[in-house]
TrEMBL record:
GO terms for cellular component: cytoplasm; GID complex; nucleus. It comes from Plutella xylostella. Pfam families: CTLH, zf-RING_UBOX. Residues 104-159 form the CTLH domain. The keyword rRNA-binding does not apply. A zinc finger (RING-Gid-type) spans 287-328. This is (diamondback moth) hypothetical protein. InterPro entries: CRA_dom (IPR013144), CTLH/CRA (IPR024964), CTLH_C (IPR006595), Fyv10_fam (IPR045098), ZF_RING_GID (IPR044063), Znf-RING_euk (IPR027370). Keywords: Cytoplasm, Metal-binding, Zinc, Zinc-finger. It is found in: Cytoplasm. Residues 287-328 form the RING-Gid-type domain. PROSITE patterns: CTLH, ZF_RING_GID.
Length: 343
């Protein structure tokens, strides 16, 4: 009742007869409250009419055709996964014409596929373009061996010997023993030749030799072109399969009451080794100085010497306009550090 009296609502209070015996401290009261007039009805919301049949589809098609979809669609990611046919279908369904396959990984995969099938000519043309970087590599000699043995099987030993005379001498100094085995293996490529000895079985197995050469080509080519020899998804799956047994064992141990009480963080208590061929897969960057994971507020920063620390560590190590790298004697200005973005 006091709320009604003190409020801004129009009301009046007067004494009244109670239905029960009156209390001296709580007499019965009658309150009159004037109700506010009803608010007028809101006007109906305007109705929006969209006439799709009147759209200018010619202008829409022109605008879509002017977009360089090869730069927007993740075709390179699909191609890097080895799904070249899926990438072609993706581009075709997008209605894009005249799209050139500029992905270096696609070229490497195509050359490797031809090499696995026994055709070393595309790989040899690629090595000629990259001859400056391959002058101390074993790949050119391996490709010449594959092609010479193919000539011996398809065109005869004479053609293979002529090819060997033209291309093998430049590799004689570094591959003397391998060259001798390859030349001797040509004798067993004749149609009426007896079964080869064991030391030549691998060279005369076209399928195995092609697969080995293709694997070597992918490794060398991806190293020179700064490409990953496998897709990011494939690498993540392989890394996950490697660490799954260790994570399972670790989970079983961390569920014990004593361990759970002593270790409360969300991180793993130790790193899991992926092996020599497991690759380097890091979902986060941990600062080697502060032992903290990087974030958007504390990103990794690359110093002029190449070492990487977090921004918080950089601010703590900086002394005015000078900063000495904690790993080498090089000094620089803190403003010269550059932020690193992980894709």
């Amino acid at each position: 009742m006091l709320d009604l009296v003190l409020s801004n609502i129009s009301c009046s209070v007067e004494g009244a007869e109670g239905l029960v015996p009156a209390d001296a401290h709580h007499p019965p009261l009658r309150a009159r409250v004037l109700a506010a007039p009803a608010a007028p009805a809101l006007p109906p919301a305007p109705r929006t009419v969209r006439r799709f049949h009147a759209a200018d589809y010619d202008a829409v098609n022109t605008a879509l055709a002017s977009v360089d979809w090869d730069q927007h669609l993740s075709v390179d990611c699909i191609e890097a996964a080895g799904l070249e046919e899926v990438a072609d279908e993706f581009v075709a369904e997008a209605g894009v014409t005249g799209v050139e396959r500029r992905s270096a990984f696609v070229s490497v995969e195509r050359i490797a596929a031809a090499l696995a099938a026994g055709n070393a000519l595309p790989a040899l043309r690629w090595t000629e373009k990259m001859s400056h970087d391959l002058r101390n590599d074993d790949l050119p000699f391996t490709l010449h061996t594959v092609h010479a043995l193919k000539l011996a099987r398809e065109e005869g030993v004479v053609s293979a010997i002529e090819y060997a005379r033209a291309h093998f001498p430049r590799h004689a100094a570094r591959h003397e023993q391998q060259l001798q085995r390859a030349v001797c293996a040509l004798a067993w490529c004749a149609p009426d030749a007896p079964p080869p000895p064991k030391q030549y079985e691998h060279l005369l197995n076209a399928k195995a030799l092609g697969a080995e050469a293709a694997e070597m080509f992918i490794t060398v080519a991806c190293s020179l072109l700064n490409l990953s020899p496998c897709s990011a998804l494939g690498g993540a799956v392989r890394a996950g399969c490697r660490v799954l047994p260790a994570l399972h064992d670790m989970r079983a141990k961390m569920t014990q009451p004593r361990v759970r009480a002593a270790y409360t963080t969300a991180d793993l208590p130790l790193e899991v080794d992926l092996g020599e061929d497991g690759g380097a897969h890091h979902s986060v960057f941990a600062c080697p100085i502060l032992r903290q994971q990087a974030s958007e507020q504390n990103p990794p920063m690359r110093l002029l010497c190449g070492h990487v620390i977090s921004r918080d560590a950089l601010n703590k190590l900086a002394q005015g306009v000078k900063l000495k790298c904690p790993y080498c004697p090089m000094e620089q200005s803190p403003s010269e550090a550059r932020q690193i973005y992980f894709s």
